[in-house]
């Protein structure tokens, strides 16, 4: 037993040493609970008894002072503006003589006292005691370390027994101060100047405490700082933005306990570009004219669509339509971009006009206006329309041979074209001496007192009467072209125009003829300015105008030309004195001139001149010239009397031929028809005027022997108007000296020869018959028969037609081969000669005397109704014969007979 007790005592001593070592490791602010025990084991070995003892010490530590609600790092987070309650928990058993104190960051060395901001109080609970610090409306300035201290007062010294600390972080809510949800950024593709922003900032400034972690996302991907993007506290910077950067950006801000998400719609705009103008649109080309409206145009492009605004350099910040809404009218559409100036004024509206193209994008960055505005300028100088300043030197009188100068003064803006032009002359005068007339000189001077006044001078030396004219002053600038007449009148004595060598039928002749009750004009002409006054005299006595119906005076002036007529109307009572010598006098301020005219009584014309004649079997053609002596009055017609030898001896006539009976110029062509073949005729030809018929010219002719009729000339119609019928017409031919007894008409269908070189329908082409000849002899009961109506024709068919006249000697084409085309002379002969072409007039007096042998015509294509019912022609005809017998014998009977 003794040894065992000794062992136990040693074990106790050893356990005390171990407990001391354990207690030295316990901290100041901890309470330790230690449980110790000894467990012994005995064993025997080789007769020796061994004891093994194990000392078991258990330690459990607990804090007696701590701040409730902190994390593992002793931190507490609180939102700004909220009330903060810090709870200091004491888990010990003894509180007697122990003091607890709170310290805050703003007063780290002075214990907290209850006031309006802070308050401290106790809360008792089972097994613990809480010392609470309440801070009202906490702010970011209240962030820092808060300390709860436990101890006792030892005189002037405080003995600290335990301490608990907490790091308080005052959080501010995640807010944005500059983060518009829609932002515009310029595109590099729209840049036109070197001052373009190479980088742009998508603004989104986020404020929070503690500073959050910010992430940017675009199109599902997170953006990171690199060559194209850079993130900062101000936002996202994009380098070299393009249209591909347009879209929805997401900003994510994270705090330890809060997360905020912001969406920003980014739109890309291109800088506006003025694509056209500014330019003057009209109505005047490249000019704005005073007192007229004007249109300026400026077109622009960009994204979004820009608007166009107009300004003037004297007030570049005020739009024109606001400056004067009654004068300026603006269409801001960039596709129209017009400025209408209702009434431009000189010189008030002369200025530099500014066209600005603007896109509607909010201002979001520095030098924003450089990217959303493009402008161009146009200098406008209002044009003043040319206006004449009338001067007395515009119209001048000058004596012949002197020098005269006319002046034209025009007020207008430059550039101004000013020149003189002679009226009716297509070429203007050049400045200086004229190359084609060195007598004329033109020069221009500018008024030194008023630069808008332009003086143009024209001087003529050694003037002649031909210089009397209107000289037009032309002024032209961008606004208008105007002209005014200046007049130069060369004054001289009237110069009578001689009338030597004119026939008596000309009213300007010095020898005139008259007849009873017919008015005759005696005329005098002169040139020279001013226009003269005309007077007429007979035997020294002045003739008064329109005193009676015998004399009438008419005067007419045109430029430097003047003319006067004395109209004399003889009658039975005045014939004894009215035929006399008359004197006309022209008088102006420079003198008088006169001319004498002889007025005599007219007589009948003399014998006409027979140039030649052509006689055939039945016709006589005369070629007549005017008589050498007309009797003073013009010939009005020719008369012909004729009588046959061996006849009844009477004269036939007069046959009157007017002067326009000729088909050819110069020589009248007279033709007499209906003569008898082989007969001699005596003829008398005379000329007639208003006085009467003159002395006849007698001659005789012998007609040729009778022959067959001449060829018949068809009035050509190449194409028929109806598919199934056609009317042919002809001119009555020469009868060959014998009466016509009828006509023979032949018709057949033909086709053109395939080897013909002509594509058009022409009678000169060779034709090939495609059917038999169809011969018609129309009933001849009228010597003037000249047409026939064909029916039962086929549509779209070419026909050849030959018409012959018949008399007792034969037909027109007897002895003529009608297979070939040709021409015959209209005048019949015993042996007709066929001519293939008309190439000269040697074989006939006139080319129109040749008549073609036959003609062609074509019927048109048939219509949808087909051929009409045949009533006449070769088709079947229905004849109805109706016989009515007497009633007393039989009843009515009708017989129908059909003839095919």
UniProtKB/TrEMBL annotation:
Domain of life according to the entry: Eukaryota
Keywords recorded for this protein, A-Z: Immunoglobulin domain, Membrane, Repeat, Transmembrane, Transmembrane helix
Molecular function (Gene Ontology), one example: cell-cell adhesion mediator activity
Pfam families: fn3, I-set, Ig_3
Stored SMART domains: FN3 (SM00060), IG (SM00409), IGc2 (SM00408)
GO process terms (BP): axon guidance; dendrite self-avoidance; homophilic cell adhesion via plasma membrane adhesion molecules
Domain Ig-like: 62-169, 180-267, 272-357, 386-489, 494-603
GO cellular component, one term: plasma membrane
Database matches in InterPro entries: FN3_dom, FN3_sf, Ig-like_dom, Ig-like_dom_sf, Ig-like_fold, Ig_I-set, Ig_sub, Ig_sub2
Ranges of residues in domain Fibronectin type-III: 604-707, 708-830
SUPFAM superfamilies registered for this protein in UniProt: Fibronectin type III, Immunoglobulin
TM region positions: 877-899
Family annotation (CDD domains): FN3, Ig
Name the record gives this protein: 3-oxoacyl-[acyl-carrier-protein] synthase
């Amino acid at each position: 037993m003794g040894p065992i007790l000794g062992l136990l005592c040693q074990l106790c001593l050893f356990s005390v040493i171990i407990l001391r070592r354990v207690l030295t490791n316990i901290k100041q602010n901890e309470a330790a609970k230690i449980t110790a025990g000894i467990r012994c084991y005995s064993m025997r070995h080789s007769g020796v008894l061994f004891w093994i003892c194990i000392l078991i010490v258990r330690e459990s530590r607990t804090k007696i002072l701590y701040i409730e609600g902190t994390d593992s790092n002793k931190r507490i987070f609180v939102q700004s503006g909220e009330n903060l309650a810090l709870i200091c928990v004491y888990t010990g058993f003894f509180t007697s003589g122990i003091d607890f104190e709170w310290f805050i960051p703003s007063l780290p060395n002075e214990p907290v006292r209850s006031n309006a901001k802070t308050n401290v109080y106790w809360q008792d609970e089972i097994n613990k005691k809480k010392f609470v610090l309440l801070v009202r409306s906490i702010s970011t300035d209240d962030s820092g370390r808060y300390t709860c201290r436990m101890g006792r007062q030892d005189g002037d010294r405080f003995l600290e027994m335990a301490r608990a600390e907490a790091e308080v972080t005052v959080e501010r809510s995640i807010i944005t101060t500059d983060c518009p949800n829609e932002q515009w950024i310029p595109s590099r593709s729209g840049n036109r100047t070197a001052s373009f922003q190479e980088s742009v900032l998508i603004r989104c400034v986020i404020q929070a405490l503690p500073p959050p972690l910010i992430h940017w996302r675009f199109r599902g991907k997170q953006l990171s700082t690199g060559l194209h993007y850079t993130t900062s506290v101000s936002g996202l910077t994009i380098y070299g933005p393009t249209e591909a950067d347009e879209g929805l950006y997401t900003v994510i801000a994270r705090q330890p306990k809060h997360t905020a998400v912001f969406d920003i719609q980014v739109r890309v705009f291109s800088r506006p570009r003025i694509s056209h103008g500014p330019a003057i649109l009209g109505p005047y080309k490249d000019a704005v004219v005073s007192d007229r409206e004007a249109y300026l145009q400026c077109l622009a492009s960009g994204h979004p669509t820009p608007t166009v605004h107009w300004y003037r350099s004297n007030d570049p910040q005020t739009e024109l339509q606001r400056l004067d809404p009654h004068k300026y009218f603006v269409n801001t559409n960039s596709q129209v971009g017009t400025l209408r100036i209702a009434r431009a004024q000189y010189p008030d509206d002369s200025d530099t006009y500014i066209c600005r193209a603007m896109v509607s994008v909010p201002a979001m960055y520095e030098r924003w206006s450089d990217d959303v505005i493009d402008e161009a300028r146009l200098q406008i100088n209002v044009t003043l329309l040319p206006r004449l300043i009338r001067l007395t030197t515009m119209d001048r009188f000058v004596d012949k041979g002197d020098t005269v100068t006319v002046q034209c003064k025009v007020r207008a803006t430059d550039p101004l074209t000013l020149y003189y032009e002679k009226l009716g002359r297509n070429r203007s005068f050049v400045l200086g001496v004229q190359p084609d007339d060195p007598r004329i000189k033109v020069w221009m001077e500018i008024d030194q007192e008023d630069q808008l006044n332009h003086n143009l001078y024209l001087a003529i030396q050694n003037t002649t009467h031909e210089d009397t004219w209107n000289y037009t002053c032309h002024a032209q600038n961008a606004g208008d072209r105007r002209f005014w007449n200046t007049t130069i009148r060369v004054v001289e004595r009237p110069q009578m125009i001689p009338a030597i060598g004119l026939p008596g039928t000309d009213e300007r002749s010095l020898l005139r003829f008259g007849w009873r009750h017919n008015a005759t004009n005696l005329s005098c002409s002169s040139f020279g300015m001013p226009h003269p006054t005309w007077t007429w005299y007979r035997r020294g006595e002045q003739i008064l105008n329109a005193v009676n119906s015998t004399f009438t005076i008419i005067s007419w002036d045109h430029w430097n030309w003047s003319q006067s007529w004395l109209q004399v109307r003889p009658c039975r009572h005045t014939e004894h004195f009215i035929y006399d010598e008359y004197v006309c006098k022209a008088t102006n301020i420079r003198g008088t001139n006169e001319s004498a005219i002889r007025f005599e009584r007219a007589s009948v014309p003399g014998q006409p001149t027979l140039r030649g004649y052509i006689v055939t079997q039945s016709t006589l053609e005369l070629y007549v010239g005017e008589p050498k002596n007309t009797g003073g009055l013009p010939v009005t017609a020719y008369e012909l009397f004729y009588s046959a030898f061996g006849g009844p001896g009477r004269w036939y006539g007069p046959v009157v031929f007017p002067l326009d009976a000729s088909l050819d110029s110069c020589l009248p062509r007279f033709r007499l028809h209906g003569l008898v073949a082989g007969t001699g005729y005596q003829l008398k030809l005379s000329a007639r005027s208003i006085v009467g018929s003159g002395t006849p010219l007698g001659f005789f002719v012998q007609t040729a022997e009778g022959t067959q009729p001449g060829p018949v000339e068809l009035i050509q119609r190449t194409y028929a108007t109806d598919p199934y019928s056609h009317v042919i017409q002809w001119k009555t031919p020469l009868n060959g000296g014998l009466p016509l007894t009828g006509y023979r008409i032949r018709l057949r269908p033909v086709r053109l020869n395939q080897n013909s070189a002509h594509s058009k329908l022409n009678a000169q082409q060779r034709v090939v018959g495609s059917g038999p000849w169809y011969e018609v002899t129309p009933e001849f009961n009228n010597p003037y028969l000249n047409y026939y109506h064909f029916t039962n024709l086929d549509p779209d068919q070419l026909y050849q037609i030959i018409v012959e006249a018949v008399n007792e000697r034969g037909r027109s084409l007897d002895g003529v081969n009608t297979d070939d085309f040709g021409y015959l002379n209209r005048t019949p002969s015993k042996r007709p000669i066929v001519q293939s072409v008309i190439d000269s007039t040697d074989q006939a007096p006139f080319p129109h005397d040749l008549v073609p042998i036959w003609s062609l015509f074509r019927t048109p294509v048939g219509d949808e109704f087909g051929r009409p019912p045949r009533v006449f022609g070769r088709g079947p005809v229905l004849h109805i014969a109706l016989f009515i017998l007497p009633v007393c014998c039989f009843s009515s009977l009708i017989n129908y007979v059909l003839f095919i």
